[in-house]
Known about the structure:
- This protein has 92 residues and is α+β, with helices and mostly antiparallel strands.
- Helices cover 42% and strands 26% of the residues.
- Mean pLDDT is 90; it is low at 84-92.
- It has one domain (3-81): GIY-YIG endonuclease (3-Layer(aba) Sandwich).
Amino acid sequence: MGYYVYILLCRDDSYYTGYTHDLKTRLEQHLKGRGSRYTRMKKLRRIVYFEWFNTRSEAMKREREIKRLTHQEKTDLINEKQGGRQPDENNC
Length: 92
């Protein structure tokens, strides 16, 4: 079983970063307001980034690294992964 680290874009243009072993189910939880207090209050717009890891400890380490980034550094990471294109509005 692997783990995902993901970044969500909220309606106020802030980012939420988390990790999970089941990305689809976790996104559904966020959309239904049961994923986290932060996304329940800020309202999820879409997923904008994810990475896959073999172990939980690797995913947790990467989550901490991403959470330490500034908003602009997270935006740069997202744009770099997507080749500079903006994510599709309907992918969530």
